[in-house]
Structure formats: C-alpha cells, structure tokens
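User: Sequence for ABC transporter substrate-binding protein below. Tokens please.
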Amino acid sequence: MGFKWVHKSLILTISLVLIAGCSAGPAKEKETQQSLKVMFGDEGYFYQTYGDLFAMKYPNIDIEVVSTNSLYNGEQTDMDKAFSDFVEKEQPDVIMMDNNNFEKFTSEGKLMELDTLIDKDKYSTDTIFPGLLEMLKEKGGGKLYGLAPSFYGSVIYYNADLFAKHGVEVPHDGMTWQEILETARRFPADGDEKTRIYGYGEQYGGTTLENLASRIASTQGLKAINPDTMKITLDTDSWKQTYKLAQDALASNAIYNPKDGGFQGGTMEEYYQSQPFLMGRMAMTVDGVYFLQNLKQAKSSIKDYKPFQIGIAAGPADPASPDTSRDIYLGRIFGIRANSPNVDAAWEFMKFVNGDEYAKIKSRTMNDGVLSRMGMSKEFDGVSLDAFYKLKPSPEDTYRNMEKIPNDFYTQYYPIVSKEIGLVESKSKSVDEALKAIQQEGQVILDKAVKEQASKKDSDSAEGAGDGAAGEQSITVETKSAN
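Assistant: Structure tokens for ABC transporter substrate-binding protein:
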C-alpha cells in the first residue's frame, strides 16, 4: 500500500504544479474519479512498466494492482484452476494472461470482445504487428478479446564482415536450422579455440548436443512429452533426425562448444571477451532483441573494441511452414473481464498500453521485448529491427498444457537425458539407442509422478471437504445450544 501512496503523492504534486501554471485560464470542470483493478505479477514492476505513464495521463483513474505472485509459490498442482480461482476471487477489471489462459478464458466467455470498443472509438490497430493480431483473433474464434503491448522473438544475427571476407552468402529470411548449420560449415574450422572463428554458436556457454537438438525441435514444434496423453515421445523418426542434424553439425567442428563450458566467472570485460560473436569471431548466432543491448554494452566496456557490421535475418523457420516462427511468443496478453463494472477505465488502460504514444516512449529501451506497434522502434544502435516482424507467429503453441506435467518429474528426468546424451557424445551409444532408453526410463518416472500428483489432489480435496463438514457441524452444535 505504501508503494501506491508514493505514486499518488507524485501524481498529486504534478497536478498541483499544472493547476498553478494554468490558474489564469478558465476554470475546468473536474473529471469524475474512476477505479480500475489490474491483475499483474508484481506491483512495483507494473508501475515501472505501465502504471506511472498511465497515471500521468489519467490522474482521474485510481489503479489497484492485484498481484499474481502467490500463484507461483510452488504449492499449486493445477495452475489452470488456481488462475481461474484467483480471477473469480479478486474480480480484476483488466486480466493479464499467457497463451494458455487467454485461449481458455475466451472459450469460456470470461473476456469482453474488443472489436465493438475498437469500432466505437475508431481505435487504430493498423500499425500493430499483423501476425500477432491474426494469432490473437484465431485464439478468439475470429474475434479479438485481448491485446499484447510487446512480444519476444528470436532472429538470426550474423557478422556481415566475416561473410564478406570468406565469400559466403549472407543468411536470408526464413532460413531453417539445416540451412543455418550448413552455412556454418562453410567457415574455416581450424585454429586455436580462443582465437579461431566459428560458423555458429550460442551466446551463453557452449552449444551442446542436447541444447542444439532442443532448439531445432522447438522450432519444428516437436515435443519430448505429450501433456495430453502423458507419454514421452522421443523415440520417433523426427526426433532422431533432429539429434542427428545437431550431431553432424557439432562433428564438423564449425560450432562453438568450448571444452571448459565457456565463461566461468570474472569481470564484465572478461565475460564479453569470452563471447566469440561479440568479439567478431563468430559468423552467426540465434538470439532475442536483448542481444543488441549486450552488443552495445560490449562496445562501451571493452578497450580498443573492434566493431563489425551486424546483419539480422528472420528465422529460424519451420521447413513445414517457412513463413511462420515458433520462436515468437507473447509474455503478456491483456484483456477486459466480462461483466467488469469499470469497462470505460479498463478500455482506456488497454488503449494506452497498446497505443502509439506508449510505444514511442518505450521505443528507447528494449526492457520488455519487441514492441507490437511497428515503426516506433525501427532500429537499435544502428541495427534494423525489421526482421522481428517478417515471420508470422505460429498459431500452434509448442508449450501448450505443459504445466500439467508434475514438477517433481523433471528432477529425475533431466539426469537421465544428460546421461544418455553424454553417452552419444562419447560415442558409447547411438542416437537411436539413447532416445529409446530415455523414453523407456522416463515413462516409468512420469507414470509414477502423475499417480502421486493425482493422489495428492484427492487427499487435498478430501481434506477440504472434511474442513467444510467440521465447520458445518460446529455451526449446528452452536445453533442447538442457542435454542
């Protein structure tokens, strides 16, 4: 509450200054004070990201933030139910959702359709990333029930100077992982690990067989576990091909995978010095928009830094759908709760955080991903951001329903994966043998975890019913005594 009063005091001070400066003018009719309850993760971060700017423009709207932090305390076994219960209890006017919550709430009629409000106010959505709007409408059955101020996405960064020096054609939009890794092999693979160049690599540490195969699989929509059937699905031709593609790429020695695992600690300058792409020794990497901030910081942190020409291409793309990307996702979708008593205030908030004015202010930073409003941040540190908008977000959500998988399962599953893939890397096992072993051993653990989770739910339900019965019994006794 103290945090909120700080913001109200700031707004009051600014309002008094504005009133004093305009006292000679005609009297203005006082605006009606409105209330607005917004559902968000952390109250402080909400004001830093959205609230302060909104309150400056709309001082007549009192905001109450209902924090969702309690939903992620590790005690929840059914996140869908916990989320729905939270909304039902708190009754926020504006609901913050992810893809799963959004699709569920639209299908259950818990969100207000925005098309009518957009038409009424002639609110322009022309400069909002079309692919994003298309995806939101698809999840809403053809209608718009939510908007997202920003999104996250990966692109292919490349060192244009290295490509020119070695006569290699630069990456193009819509490149697949196979094309990226084949291009990486066209660069020299000899020399000392600390000074040579690499065709491809990751920014953080080495590119292992496990993480490279996982990235390829994610782009192609492959799941290691099917949360609807609770079956592990690794022993398939698609997964085998994915691991063999990654295995062949690493065997070519064109991929950055240092023996010591990469940076082990030290100063920021030492960290930057340990990153081959930042130091001009790597042809390509795949990363998000934050990478540009890292690159900018490296330039200012390293003495005698040698800059190079950066290029960006849209991708990686799924070969089965080359104009879409599964590496584009929405961190936050805002919607208005159906039957909200404060629709006007909620819609003002929605218009503002998804509008041109907000986007212009936020275009100076990259703190919250890529802006959904196109044209507001055309470049960052001289590098064009157009590539982030060239592929459409895939309507298929690779991570859909993954929260159904018991958390306890992963602590036992990952060591099995690391052990088996380690055997492949040491040439003690084939990819086919390792994936079969992971599927067989992992399924035993998953079946057990699912059974234990179901037992816990039954136990919690019985305990809750018992508490309710005890409460009813005590009321009955008291009533009889009173009579």
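The chain has a mean pLDDT of 86.
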